[in-house]
Amino acid sequence: MAINIKRPNGTEDVLPKDVHKWLTVEKIARETAESFGFSEIRIPTFENTDLFLRSVGETTDVVQKEMYTVMAKETKFTLRPEGTAGTIRAMLQNGLLNEALPQRVFYILSCFRHERPQAGRLREFHQFGLEMAGSPSPCADAEVISLAKTLLDRLGLKNIELYINSIGCPTCRAKYHEALRSYFEERKDELCDTCLSRLEKNPMRILDCKSPVCGEIAKDAPLIIDYLCEECSEHFEKLKNYLTKLGIDYKVNPKIVRGLDYYTKTVFEFVTTEIGAQGTVCGGGRYDGLIEQLGGQHIPALGFAMGIERLLLVMEKQGCDYLTPKKCDIYFATMGDSALEKAMELSRELREYGYFAEYDMMNRGLKAQMKYANKIGAAFTVVLGDNELNEGKAKLKNMESGDEKEILLDNKFTANFDAVYIDRMLESLEDAEAFPAFPMNKESE
Ligand code: HAM
To answer: 431 pLDDT exceeds 90?
Structure first.
């Protein structure tokens, strides 16, 4: 039987040519979160299965259909399908919630869900997410939404709509569940088996069932927003007011219920129509009961997560900028063993000072080495052979302009290279400045 060594369906390889795109998102996400007072947390890739049953919820699609669970000896473990449960578990287990509140953490991690793969929907995907614990105030909701919006803006993303809703607290939920039960009871025969069992236990979950038939039936179901208690209504009104004050556009979408059980009050999603059916780039909300449910005190909390693959799909589509990947500063083309040794010595020294230096390791001829230097986009090259070694000097070639400059191969090599390198940087800065001035000059003519 042939061995299958292809990557599993729904997973992706990120190749070296694309890593700078991921680094761009990760860097901007980290900096944005830190500027709002969040610190990074790192948690295990797998947890005890019970953690997800308790938090994400036993009647959710994620738990019922999508978890990767293994039995190891006597214990059941699950690859995390999301970051909130593990993060709250870690905060509780490490006493973070006994420290000054609000506690604010962010994470960048992989998640695993056994879904049907399609564009923007993977079985292993990555989230940038964050959680804030301690504040019951709607200003915390506005703060977290504002952070998400700031990040999307800083990534250069356009045309992403913010939808908000409130799904109430256990008090409003009780009346709402009754209304839902009597609505779905009438079309009970058409529901899928999973939804049939949800009807008793948790009828709200029928609202986000992925089956088209259940989806059609759910279209005219009662809306939670019509069942909010006074406290939840007031919370929602205040949030709307804060968002308006912050200049953040939003639309109320009373149909958002989110696919995870822990949410209370505010839920929100940032959605684009530009990458197909999986257009939700960010989802989040408040979960005031989760910490208590996992054995902690009653501490209200909230957060969100963004799918990094989806962000990258939109960035690609909209032609957003990325951080420039680091390129080779100097390449030594060598002829003979002594030249190779000199190149190794100089490269080591240059790298100590932060330069990206390379030399030939493939025993190529000079022409092939120069071709390679061109291919990797080296900024400068130096040809080293017996003549150069005997004379103690060589030609340093600026690969962009073609200019050559003599450089001494002595103990001041790095310092001499610094000067040439800085000159080149200044020139390219001047070029960059000259460019935008051009249309302005034209206008003033
Ligand atoms: P979620 O809505 O399940 O929420 O996932 C958050 C984001 O992860 C989605 O909006 C989407 O961008 C991305 N995502 C989800 N599933 C996939 C998939 N199969 N393939 C690619 N991307 C995906 C949560 O996970 C919550 N823990 C968010 C949260 C944090 N709520 C409060 N704090």
So the answer is: no
